[in-house]
Specification:
3-stranded antiparallel β-sheet; about 130 residues; 3 helices; alpha+beta
């Protein structure tokens, strides 16, 4: 759960792609400035490159958000594990005090989703 290597690789690739696309946009602008492109060809190429850049940028932001959520989830679970190590024995029955220490509230949706909202603001969604 705390291993983010796979997403770090995706983030690194997205950063590289953003740099590459940014360079391509600069090249396109330079070619237009030197009159190597017709205005129509320039506008088409520029439009395509900026669209690709914006799509990659959105993907990059989503990857960063996903990594942040993974880290937050890991923190929640490490807190749970820490709380469990403080117990003299692992509760086999429901322990209301343990539950109240960790969980702020739970929301159940009609689409069979359950969202656990923890005291630190982290949310975990489970499907029933």
């Amino acid at each position: 759960m705390t291993d983010t290597d796979f997403i770090d690789t995706d983030i690194e690739k997205a950063e590289h792609d953003l740099e590459r696309l940014s360079g391509m946009v600069r090249s396109c602008i330079m070619m237009n400035a030197s009159a190597n492109l017709t205005e129509e060809a320039y506008r088409q190429q520029y439009s395509d490159l900026t669209r690709q850049y914006e799509e990659k940028k959105a993907e990059y932001k989503a990857l960063l958000e996903r990594r942040k959520n993974m880290e937050a989830t890991a923190i929640v679970f490490s807190g749970i594990l820490f709380r469990l190590t403080e117990l003299e024995e692992i509760p086999i029955d429901f322990d209301e005090a343990l539950w109240n220490t960790l969980v702020d509230y739970v929301t159940v949706y009609a689409d069979e989703r359950i969202v656990f909202s923890f005291m630190d603001g982290t949310e975990i969604t489970e499907m029933v």
